[in-house]
Specification:
By secondary structure, this protein is mostly helical. The chain has one domain (5-85). 60% of the residues lie in helices and 7% in strands.
Length: 86
């Protein structure tokens, strides 16, 4: 058995959840309004931490509503890497 098997399966499952949630207008609206949507999502999926990245690059977290500049920089870098691959 591959040592990374369970982690890979978990990552794939979380990716599938993220894809569905990314298109959920109600969830996006709830997060934008400051509702406890990220807290509920994290609890439901069994995550200690959940993040939402808005179209403008703002990063929100279930535990700290505004993430620090370091995390925002990582998200910006990841977005640049993805756009270079397209």
């Amino acid at each position: 058995m591959n040592a990374h098997g369970p982690s890979r399966k978990r990552a794939q499952a979380l990716g599938a959840h993220a894809s569905v949630l990314a298109h959920d207008f109600g969830l996006r609206s709830a997060i934008a309004s400051g509702d406890a949507a990220l807290d509920n999502l994290a609890a439901r999926v069994g995550l200690p931490q959940a993040y939402f990245v808005a179209a403008d690059g703002q990063v929100l977290s279930n535990s700290d509503r505004r993430m620090d500049a370091h995390l925002a920089g990582i998200v910006a870098w990841a977005a640049e890497q993805q756009s270079e691959q397209i």
